[in-house]
Amino acid sequence: MNLLRGKKKFAILQPAVERLDIGIKLKGVAADGRLEAASSWNAMVTHRVRISAAKDINAEVLAWLKQAYAAA
Fold first, then answer.
1. How far apart are CA 29 and CA 15, in angstroms?
2. Residue 40 has what pLDDT?
3. Three-state secondary structure call for residue 1
4. pTM given for the model
5. Buried b (16+ CB within 10 A) or exposed e, 33-70
6. Could you tell me the sign of the dihedral formed by the alpha carbons of 69, 26, 9, 23, in that order?
7. Is the pLDDT of residue 15 over 90?
8. With 90 as the cut, is the pLDDT of residue 55 above it?
9. Phi and psi of 10, rounded to 5°?
């Protein structure tokens, strides 16, 4: 599923076995900790966050999504 602001994609949601992968477009932001470089996982985004449980969607993940939305 693509997350859009107007016609610009800022993130994607992709279910995987036993987790949800969130791809986020954050140009110029260094990968660090949970915010992994997307590399070859998906060329449409710059970073990936792996979500294994609902508690993994915290303020940090929401801040990254808000930042990507604002930049789109």
1. 24
2. 87
3. coil
4. 0.91
5. eebeebeeeeeebbbbbebeeeeeeeeebeebbeebbe
6. negative
7. yes
8. yes
9. -120, -15
